[in-house]
Please model this.
Amino acid sequence: MALLEVNNLGVSFVTRNGTNRAVDDVSFTVESGQITAIIGESGSGKSVACYSLLGLIPKPPGRIDGGQALFGGRDLLQLPEAELRKVRGRDIAMVFQDPMTCLNPYMTVGKQLMEPLRYHQKTPAAQARRRALELLQEVGIRDPESTIDNYPHQFSGGMRQRVMIAMALINEPQLLIADEPTTALDVTIQAQILQLIAGLQRKRDIGVIFISHDLAVVADIADQIVVMQEGKIVESGDRAGIFQHARHPYTQKLLAAIPADSKASATLSPEPLIQVRHLATWFGQGRKQEPVKAVNDVSFDIRRGEVLGVVGESGSGKSTIGRSLLRLVPVTSGQVLFDDTDVTQLKGRALKDMRRRMQIIFQDPFASLNPRMTVYDTLAEPLLLHGIENRSSVARGVLKLMDDVGLARNFVRKYPHEFSGGQRQRIAIGRALATHPEFVVADEPVSALDVTIQAQILDLMLALGREYGLTMLFISHDLAVVRHIADRILVLYQGEIVEQGSGQDLFENPQQTYTRELLQSIPGRSLLQ
Amino acid sequence: MWRFIAYRLLQAVPVILAVITVTFFLVRVAPGGPFDSEKAVVPEVKAALEAQYRLDQPLLTQYAAYLGDLAQGELGPSFKYPGRSVNELIAAGLPVTAELGLYALLVAMVIGGLAGVIASLKPNTAQDYLPMSAAMIGICMPSFLLGPLLVLVFGIYLDWLPVSGWGDIPGDKILPAITLGSTYAAYIARLSRAGMLEVMTQDYIRTARAKGLPEWQVVTRHALRGGLIPVVAFLGPAFAGLLSGSFVVETIFQIPGLGRFYVQAAFNRDYTMILGTTVFLSTLIVLFNLLSDILAAWMNPRLRTQFSEH
Amino acid sequence: MRLHFSARQLLPIFCLCITLVACGSGESRVVQGNRDGILHYGNGTEPQGLDPHIVTGLPESHIVRALFEGLAVKNPFTLEPEPGVAQSWDISEDGRTVTFHLNPQARWSNGDTMTADDYVWSWRRALNPAMGNQYAYMLYPVENAEAFATGKLEDFAEVGVKALDQHTLQVQLVTATPYFIQLMDHYSTFAVHRPTIEKFGKATDRFTPWTRVENIVGNGAFTLTEWKLNRRIRVEKSDTYWDRDRVRLNGVVFYPTENISSEERMFRVGQLHYTQTIPLDKIPVYRAMENSSYVNAPYLGTYYYLLNINKAPLQDVRVRRALSLAIDRARLNNTVLHAANVPAYGITPPGTLGYQPPKLFGHDVAAARELLADAGFPNGEGWPGLELTYNTSESHRKIAVALQQMWKDALNIEVTLSNQEWKVYLDSVDQMNFQMARRGWIGDYVDPNNFLDLFLCAGGNNNTGFCDPQYDDMITRQAPRARSREERYAIFYAAETLLMEQMPFIPIYTYTSNHLIHPSVRDMPSNLMDSLNLKYVWLDQDWEAAQ
Amino acid sequence: MSDASITDIAQAEQGTSLWHDAWLRLRRNRLALFGLGVLVLFITIALITPWIAPYGYAEQNLDLGASGPSAAHWLGTDIFGRDLLTQIMYGGRVSLAVGFIATAVALLIGVTWGAVAGYAGGRVDAVMMRLVDILYALPFMIFIVLLMVVFGRNLLLLFLAIGAVEWLTMARIMRSQVQTLRQQEFVEAAVSLGLSPTTIIRRHVIPNALGPIIVYTTLTIPSVMLLEAFLSFLGLGIQPPQTSWGLLISYGAETMEEYPWLLLFPGLALTLTLFSLNFLGDGLRDALDVRGSRD
Model:
């Protein structure tokens, strides 16, 4: 008998501008001892389906239209709130996406860990504490005795996710629902967490629902896969069935979107556009505190028309390099020659002219556009500022930019909050191209996008790069993406370049141990050619 | 931690000095002197009086002399109360005003805090508007109206509480505290409501619910701590406002506080008294601002660990 | 810091503290006071100090008169002087020499006997310019006193006061002064205890703590036992006072009741026997009560508007008279002032020791319009505007607003109001930069001279710019020479008539004293000087039976 | 590339501009609309008072004195027999003027001061905020009393004095807003475009920091009205025969037992204004909160 059986589940949200059905007639089963993955892009209803089972959807806007959710012989959807809360706390546990915000910052880790145990089973404090220490050990936290009384901000992202998992398992649940547990983590840490979840699932023989938007992530650990699109299940089957011979076009499109190849080598002019000599950018030169050496004595060249990839985990200093080149961050020492002029010494007018020739694209499409300026204003501002267009011709210039980035013209008067993530990134790219720059820094431009959208944006950037003859610095923590777009790749570790080479060389014979570890951690390693 | 406090205290010195200088010269510019009175004063007598208080010396020497005395903690004699020094008057008045200010702050926090938290649980419903409107009454009813009203209802008609005085008859501190505190209850209600609404959307609240905790435990054990930080940060400016506004309440309830001395001094051009009270009120305000900043930082573990590290 | 209270736990605590409090504020002070013989007295503002030669305000005078006693004391019923420290006094034929015979029983509160030398030393201290005594002019009738007080005379021996022996004090006056004995009741003429003062510094030192509870030595019916700043001052019956058998109160507690509304509320809940004043709008309420505790009586003072006769348009007497005639004083008094005062048509309050001032005009709008037309402003045309300056107070505002409208309706002229803060107002009046300004004068002693000498050319408190040599001559030369009171009053009458024809000021009303006095308070009569003599006052425990 | 003409832009689907979008959302919030309605009503009445006031504001009837609401005087009369409704209307002119103008002054100084301090950071920020601390430390009530006493009394000074005291908290709120916005990527993008700091503050930072400022403004207006009342209570505010709601309330408070209507009606006017300001303020803040809209 299946651990959890969901039949014809329907959930819709009643908002001012009409009701929309987030989950439409969804049925699936979860066996204990198996990992069932639910894959779908944002807005596909994958999270809503699971949350509604546990009553975690706020009732006024949300509404359960119908369906059954059989768990342990009882229909969760009919249970009174008090009963549902018992199930939620003891039998079904959850792990959420962003470890940085899912723990209560004002409470020690130990106390939060023991809370479910103390509340549901009224276990005395001393015993609960021992249980918590055991679990911390089990999820791989070294020396839990000394850290159990620390506060969440004293743990790294990966460590906090381990604490979340420990907290979920403390009441010995039968079902664990993990909602994109590794999306916010670095690729190496993501690999460790995935192994941890798979290991715990086998050891405790519990059912796991693994929700994700990225097929590659679940390629190694999922037993069953369910693919959802716009509230409906389009396909489901075992891992081999889905990856080898997916039937539904949407599933095929998802598979195709995973960057698997490395860029063909192109012939480039040898003459460097950017020369970086011993660049060092340190933060917090307080009197007494030790300065943070974000970028430490880095030197490299970027040839004209080349796409240089920079790969590294958070804290490796990759973003700082990008911002140092553009003088968005004060450079401590070293030289940055742009077409033989040292950018670090420029001031006033000269700096402004230089800024025209260098632009940046940011990661978060929601934060990189001024919410209170229409697309027209956002694109017109750089055109007018640098005199590329005058008052009369600016309208034509804006429309050309919109065509270049593939945005429909009649959206020109709209505001950022009326666009999807992908469309906003197109606007940001349009803004960067407005001044006809020679050099563009792309700081993780696609990390926040769904896989299919990610593929479109990468292709757009490659196409525009060729058309505008751009030289690009592409920064990302995702080695697969960088390999797909960059001619040459720098591997960065704690502010220093560890290795560099073309995508192909790096993948075939990585020299440094850190590079090898990076390669191992790429999810869905088996899918790559 | 102590380095931070020392640093802030050090910063307070120029602040207080600036306050003294501004007040010192502003007061002397005001028309009318300390010794004018309705019955015309014989010029010779007035000259003798001004000599006794060194008012006939050039302004700068007076200023230097005053700072010299201040350095030794001597605030000079009061013009209006001959035979009494400003130190003595302040020693009598300051503790009362500080105590009234604290009770008022307590009232404001209890009324405002409760209203804000209850309102935030069900936003934009009756449970939101009723408590918020009740807290709002505090803002639109000035103390010179609320005070007499409370006295009439509780003091005279119901005869539950004394009509005036401070510390003589039990219970005579309740009405003044409510009168003074109610204005700030509204501000605190809005702050705590906004703070709680902000916190309730945080992810760790969803985690708490996922643990199966009942709603009221989710609110008290998890949401309250974060939600009330903006309120604690507001206590400093609120206390400053309370001190300034306290003298109306002190006049209505015949409370021997510093505020009342201040207004009498201002109206009588009792220069040393004005300066003395201003210095003490400013110091009290600066200290309390520091205290509320430290408290707000202490409530946030991230800042607390930074403090204890260096 | 753990904020672990939950809403459930908080509720019970909250209810507990509400019930705890709601047990009423216990037995009222009046009931206790009547039992223990302690009078609870609302005293207005917090007294500045208790040194008789420094203080100036009314609140201070009540306490100083309880702790000290002058050579003569005012009888509260008749205001006639009664024996104080001096058991008797005799005045020479030409009225210029007064000899006081001190009562041998008179003692200081520390037991020392009072001697004539005490008075010589005290008057020297009171007149010493370094002392800054703002009431030194009370002793100016004494020969050379004014010269010494203004620093023109160094040697005090030339001042006309001598101690003939331990118990005889002889005073030489500049000229015959019928009201001189009354002045002996004013505290700036009181004796102070020399050893105590000199123990804490020079005689003329203002900062000495000699008036502290633990140091003060007085010679009055009570001694100081407690002074809590801005809270209360407690005095208790003195056991060294020569007339202590007559004193029936065991003690008095003075409260600083600055806010008149709060004072009235304290009276209503029985926290006070006596209030300093009463809010204007409460008068009709209390007057309507049967056997009400509201006491209203004539008071030696006049409320008037100073006119600056050097400034246009007031330099024309017709304008001044028109302004005065246009005011309906009776209507103002009955409505805005709730009939608490008496309309005034001169400077001297009627009935000042039998003197009746002249009444030259009444409310006559027609005459007023005619006068204004003659003065060149027919029906208000060409009126340059007039500003009335007054200091911030509830009653001043009400009167000013009412009169502003009366002038507008009657004469169609614009009068703007300038409400100034106390010291700014004093400064404006002092520097004469005003056109019309509110003014109130309370008599220092019961004699028309105290009001009429205001408008002498050299009068310190003239502030109108009015100067008429003939008027000066009548007041300073002719009146003192009058052989009898009738003749003196006739001269005063003629002088006041001349004054009112010139109208340098607009009289509005004669003051009245307004108090709330608990029925249990006995022998605290209201008198023209509203002067308080605690020697006579006593508390009747079964006052209800008497009603 | 087809030559796009201006008309092409015009036909572009008219995007709902943020302010337009905010107005749509505000229109659905009944309470905010109620608030807006009351405010507009009060302001229009205040503007056209001289023409519609039933009696002259100084017209007295001493014999009548304080009388309760009657046919002749809908809201009764004050102790001078002046019609209370007329007093409230004229009082409204002063109170609303003081409320809005003083708050505007506070808004202007506070917003610019906070924006510059927040954006500049470092030493400039430290100095500017130290000055704010000094003014915070000065017991502001006393500061106003001294100001009014020293420079005498006129309405303009009243506005400036109140405005000069209320901008402190405004500056602090603005500074914290600007500091958070400063880290936003769209500001960094603006820097990389080469825009000057002043343009960045004006075009990018201030419009996005207005939410909390608006809410605080709706709290400042009533408290400024009460501050004017308090000053008038001390005799330092406006001069008779001018009046204001605050003054009417302070006179009413003194005779609340004998003539309760003298306190009730002005109090009601002020309370109604306060509540409508708050409902409008909350409505505006929610309407402007972009996050609350689509995603």
Notes: Confidence is low (pLDDT under 50) at residues 1-5 of chain D.
